[in-house]
Predict the structure.
Amino acid sequence: ATPTAIMVGTGLGARRGILFKNATALETSARIDTVVMDKTGTLTKGEPEVTDLIVEHLSELEVLALAAAVERESEHPLAKAIVAHAAQLHAPVLVADSFRNVPGHGAGAVVGAQRVLVGNRRLMIAEGVEPNALSDRRDELAASGRTAVLVAVDGRVVGVIALADAVRPTAAGAVVALHDAGVEVVMLTGDNEATARRIAGQLGIDTVVSEVLPGDKADQIGRLQAAGRKVAMVGDGVNDAPALAKADIGIAIGAGTDVAIETADVVLMRSDPLDVAVALRIGKGTLRKMR
Ligand code: ADP
Ligand code: MG
C-alpha cells in the first residue's frame, strides 16, 4: 500500500465521520464480501418504547410496577424502556431484592414476597414457567416486528410487554447500496425469530440469524469465515465486541458502547448504516490506487 493512497482514503473517511483506525482496516475493507449487522442499536435506533401491555390476573399497573422493579436493576435498553413507561403511568415504585441478570434472556428478582421474571420465552422455559394464552399474544406481537417480553409472577405468566424500536432512516438504503456493491447482508440478533424476520423483511435483508446468545455472536462470524467469506461485522453493543474482534473488520456505530468502539477497526461517527457501504467503497478506491 502506498502511504499516499492510505492517507487519501483515511482523509476521505474522516471527512464523512468514518474513522479507519489503521491502514489494514482500510485495505481489508476492499475485500469484504459479507456484512453482518447487529439489529438492535445498529439497524434500529436502539431506543425501544413500550407500545402494548396485555395482562391477566393482575392489573396493568401492578404488572408494570413489578416488571419495573426488576428492570430498574438492569442496564438493558428494553429494561430502561419498561422503567420509563412505568414512571410515565405513575406505577407504584416497588423495591427488588436478589436481582439476577440472565444475558440474552432477561432478568429476575424478588419483589415483596413475589418471584418476578421479565424476559423472553427462553427465560420462561429455563425457569419452568408454563406457557398460557398470553404466550400466544406474545407471538402475535412479535410477528408484527415488535419485541415482546413476558412477565411472570411466582411461576405464572401475568403480562406481555411489547416494545418497538424504530429502524434507522437509512437502514434500507444501506442494504440496497451493499447489495449493489455485490455484498451479502446478514442480520444477527438476540431477539426472537418472528421479530427479526419482520424487520429484515422491511429492510430487504434475506439472511437472518436470530435468538443468538451474547456469547455466540463471534461463533456465527467464525462460521461464515470458515465458509470462505471475508466478513465485516457492524455492531454497537457490549455483546457485539467479541464478534467485532473476530470479523475481518469490526465496524462500530459511534453512538454505541465504549467497548464496541474500542474493539472495532472502523468507527462510524454519524451512526449512519449507509456509511458501512461508503467505508467499503473508500477501501476499494484505496486499493485501486495501490495497484
Ligand atoms: P440483542 O442482540 O438484540 O441486543 P440481547 O442479547 O441483549 O439482544 O437480548 C436478547 C433478548 O433477550 C431480548 O430481545 C429480550 O427478549 C431478552 N432480554 C434480554 N435482557 C432483557 C431484560 N433486561 N428484560 C427483558 N428482556 C430481556
Ligand atoms: Mg445492538
Remarks:
- Residues 38, 40-42, 235-237, 240 surround magnesium ion (ligand 2) (CB under 6 Å).
